[in-house]
Amino acid sequence: MSNLSDIGFPVRGEQDVNDVIMKVLENVREIPCPRGSYYKFADASGAAIYLQANASQELIGFNPHFEGKSRRAVSLTEAIEKESSELDGAFHAWANPQNENYETGDYPFVFDVPDFRTHNNLNFPQNCEVQLTAFASSEFGIFKSEQDYDESQESEIKFAAKSFVPSGLFNLDADKSQPPLAFGVFTGEIKEFELKTNQLTGEKFYWFLVETLGGEIDVVADPKLVTVEPNIGGYLHGQFWLSGRLINEAEARA
Prior knowledge:
Blueprint: H1 14-24, E1 29-33, E2 36-42, E3 47-54, E4 59-66, E5 72-81, E6 89-95, E7 107-112, E8 126-143, H2 146-152, E9 163-165, H3 171-174, E10 183-197, E11 204-212, E12 215-221, E13 235-246, H4 247-252
Parallel strand pairs: 8-12
Antiparallel strand pairs: 1-2, 2-3, 3-4, 5-6, 5-8, 6-7, 8-13, 9-10, 10-11, 10-13, 11-12
């Protein structure tokens, strides 16, 4: 299981990843940006892949995303560049900012951005709206009710039924030279869900619209992770990789 399998691209090794890239290359749209271009594949299911090409049009990387329904207010406070690729990047943000006080809100967190270099002219800090997708990992569970979730917690430290822990910020304590990571541990209420089909591969994946602390979030998961039949009003909990897009600018390029 991987971030790719969470949106219907099952991969088991490097060759499978290469096969996915070759498939999506047949139906992509170029998004020019400083230092190169993104080549976006968008599936009818909402699954998306952003291939990266440098100024010489050499493929240098890619990132998956899912274009969902979630909308949440954030305050962007910093852009984070990455060594993995010159077209990779993330934003540090505050969830649900309070008025014009840009560095207060429910919590700080980091999310990766699949079209990061298209936002080179942003001024910080600034409030905006984002569509945020959480990709499920092996630490994932679904519960029929808030009571079921509460009763499942056996450790001394318990999470609220709507909670968000920006776990990607914790690595700063261990090594301040490392940038923060786009990971979060959260619990939230399932408002909508669907077993979707990736139209390119024919593979299934789950999508959830979840209400958690700080606002809505889209969640995608490999069906192998979903061991309990989901229900509206149920809850899910897990550790997730976070990928987000800025709404206004994203719609302008759609």
